[in-house]
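Morning F.,

Quick status update on the modeling queue. The single chain you submitted on Monday has been processed. Sequence for confirmation:
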Amino acid sequence: MFISIDFGITNTDVLLKKEGELIHVAIPSEGIPSDQFLLDLLDEIGESESEIKGIAVTGGHHQKLSSLVNGIPIIHVNEIEAIGEGGKELGGVFDKPSIVVSAGSGTACVFSHNGEYIHCSGTGIGGGTIIGLSKLIINEHNPEKIQQLAELGDHSNTDLILSDVVTGPIGKLPSNSSAVNFGKINKINKKISTEDLAAGIVNMVCQTITRISASASMAFDTKDLILVGRTCQFTALKDAFKQASRLTDLNIHFPSKGEYASALGAMLIMQKKPQ
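Structure tokens below.
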């Protein structure tokens, strides 16, 4: 049996591969990872330690873990390589260069081609930004509830959109594109609904991720973008990338199980190593 663990900022993703089957478990991230965490995990699994061939670790402070725990090899995997390897596997884009966009608490863009992985762009804005701003502005920190509120809201009630500020088109951008995020707040005196505020927050973050990702694809002359990470669960992010694909010739991939891309990548890299 193989095990891989991605120590994310918000969630820790654990993958178990037993008899060819993948089992995924997600738990909230708490503190700095330790050898004791691994020992506790092995106790929970309840499998014979002699059956465990290796544990791959990536993300967070994985380097603080030992290289051997109870005789089990601990394989440390660079996070960029894990994102690239796992994203390519889930996206199924093997024969051409692509950029894997890991949209988690923050956002990382990884150029991937022929086993080469380069951290080519990114931003501190991501799902963690949505949750932090939502807690501050609308007193809500549950991602599912934020998503529900945002779907009921309209970001044009918080943002100055193109039709508010110009009379003609700006390139190929639709008239409801945000010209100034939250720019309308200072222009009106009426109360903004919680739903509209949620929509404004989610829209701002998702548009930023999309534009940075599209810029990275142009800089590295790639056409394929593979989106992984939990922020992809926000409808606004998928909508923003779909709009980008209509305005450009980018191919956008939203593979299933993208939330454990890094853990999968770490496992795949571990399995390539000589046993």
